[in-house]
Amino acid sequence: MRAFLCSAGSEPALAEELARAGAVATELAPGVVASDRDADLAPLDPIFARQALPEARLVEGTSVRALAEAIFAVVETAIDRSTGPFLLHTLAHAEPPQGLASRATLVGREVLALLAARRRRAFRRHHPVDAAGDAFVAFNAFDESWLLVQLVALGRDRFVVSAAAPRALPAGGFDLARWPGGDAPVLIDRAPPSRAYQKLEEAFAWMGTAPRAGETCVDLGAAPGGWTATVIKHGARVVAVDRAPLAPALARHPLVTTVIGNAFTYLPDLAAAPVDWLVCDVVCEPPRSLALCDTWLSGGLCRSLVVTVKFKGRAGYGVLGDLAALFARLRPELARVKQLAYNKNEVTVMVQRKRRPETTSAK
Question: Does the global pTM surpass 0.90?
């Protein structure tokens, strides 16, 4: 089977996506959905899944040692066959009982101990993660040469286990995320006027890129300025468009130009300055957000884009299917739509067409 991890409450939406791919989905636990098919499914990038577990197996054991032995039996062949580095991610499902995450950690440590004792040469290829659970892996370094071993605790005595290499997706990126559970780490920043910055930083992590000095970004629906603050932290200029004013400190920032106006009718003066990024976290009906994506991408108004699409209730997700036709027509370098960890009842559209090349000054 192939399992997927999602936000708790998004299991039905994920199951519908898998059904459209011809698979029957079953909820194994909150935030864990399994497909009855695997080998005949192409690499998938479901909107409502942040991580995949290809070739997944269910294992059971009444103790940490018994679980580790069962998991070792499942993953040893894949580790032996792999010639590149491997990661081991251990986690519990989206809403675990108390202590289940600790149980997963103990089982993961025991699996590593077994590998160190029985597969010494292979164990040297193990790539550790830091205290925050993030692997020291550059975005462009995580590719098909890696092996990702995942242990997800469904209960104290029951785990779902996967050992697979990431596979490239047609629209860019890979079907496996390099972070445990597909949750990109975002540093706490108390400077922005809202916590919305977390969604944008998470999107940049998924894209493997961010605005940089010398680039121009348009922030539609910018007030009070959470996303604007994030962009200028990366060094780019921001044109902040909103009917409401930005937080005063942001409005005075030398990298910020404020425009009091309508986010849906604003168009940049490309003759004055090209727009490298469009970012938008405006509250509106989903079709209006999708229309913004179409206008700015089809019209060549920006090179990269991050837009959240917000929903009321759990209905209406079908409108996201319109993005597939847009991406097929434009063929960007990267095009992904994800319900990220910091999204609520919303998804994030992430597109990169072509960035301006790096420029270096002559010595």
Answer: yes
